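Sample intake sheet
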Amino acid sequence: MSVQKPSLPKGTRDFGPLQMARRNFILDTIKDTFKLFGFQQLETPAMENLSTLTGKYGDEGDQLLFKILNSGDFLKNVSKGDLDAGAQSILPKVSEKGLRYDLTVPFARYVVMNRNEISFPFKRFQVQPVWRADRPQRGRYREFYQCDADVVGTDSLLCELEIILMIKRVFSKLGIKDYHIKINNRKILTGLSEVIGEAGREGELCVAIDKLDKIGWEKVQEELAQRNFSPYAIEKLSPIVNLMTGNEGRLDFLKKYLAASETGLNGIAELEELFSMLQTYGEDQEHVDFDVVLARGLSYYTGAIFEAKVNHVSIGSVSGGGRYDNLTGVFGLEGVSGVGFSFGVDRLYDVLEELGLFPEENPENTKVLLTYFDTKGFGYGLKVLNELRSAGIAAELYPDQTKIKKQLTYADKKQIPFVIILGDNEIEAGNVSVKELSSGQQETLSLEELVKKWK
């Protein structure tokens, strides 16, 4: 009988020790930042009831949900008639649960279920994998991590300010220097569609304008015409296309341009207040870029919209978010507004790899390997091992009695920087010989001296 070669499901991957150390470097940086800003960590189950997930992500989202078959005889309630009627009538009878598709819907469910225990405003962060039955391709996986932070229960623009500050801090700690945090306001987009005489069509408007960088204004005009935007509307839009002067200039121009739209002017006022708070906090507008046509999440964002992009790398945005008025309405709790954003951990990983920003030194590696020649050395090694670990130094004792060369090869392959050699002399004198593998330098110290040196 031939043994089947093991394989992974499409769109998933393993993370080996090196990748885990690098992922933890990113995640620890993000978590530290969230905690510094007063966010508390939450985890929700990998699976949710399908009733919780269905209908929250649009038709396309429903298609991409991974459904879990009921355990046991999952066909017991399915009749011949159901089979003839097709998937839609079979599904509710064979599956009650699905894997979570994002972290926002489970968070909304959590808030509704715990609304009497939570003190608002509630600041939470969550770092967990999500699953989507998407077509796998480069940079798009079926299992990937999301890293969300949300504040619910307040309309204060302090929340938006803190998102900008958190993105700045994370990038600075990761060594990313060349990036933009693009920011816009949903109310400005609503204002745009109102003043060009196409009220309520900001979705279509933005889908087309969003392609400016890629296809140019001529082609965008054609696309707008195909979508039945009037020649007047297209003409009226043209000054928006060339808004090139800094944040202040754009805001000043838009105050006149959106004069006829109260909603639009509200959006401008919110952005101005945000920039003023940034200044009072003692930070400048470096890396912060007001982008009039930035549009994402139009079906749910109602205020600020964010997107962070690292420049001169092949990956798109690595972070995004915005303000929503009604997080929990789908579960019957109205009026919980909040603002949230997330980091794409996999994308950040690719960015740091492309820019060579991972620290050379792997913080998770063993610091020292204890090597020896015989049983006596092994016994002495156990005592030394205990002392080192008690002092918080990551140490290993080679498990098998074998040639020193083989023990050193193990240290080398595992990138352990130091070895301690325990021979008869060391055992008699009660000290240790420490060798640094990269330089070959060796010294003999008492255990106390070594611990002191390495602490």
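Comment: The CA atoms of residues 293 and 323 lie 17 Å apart. The chain has a mean pLDDT of 91.
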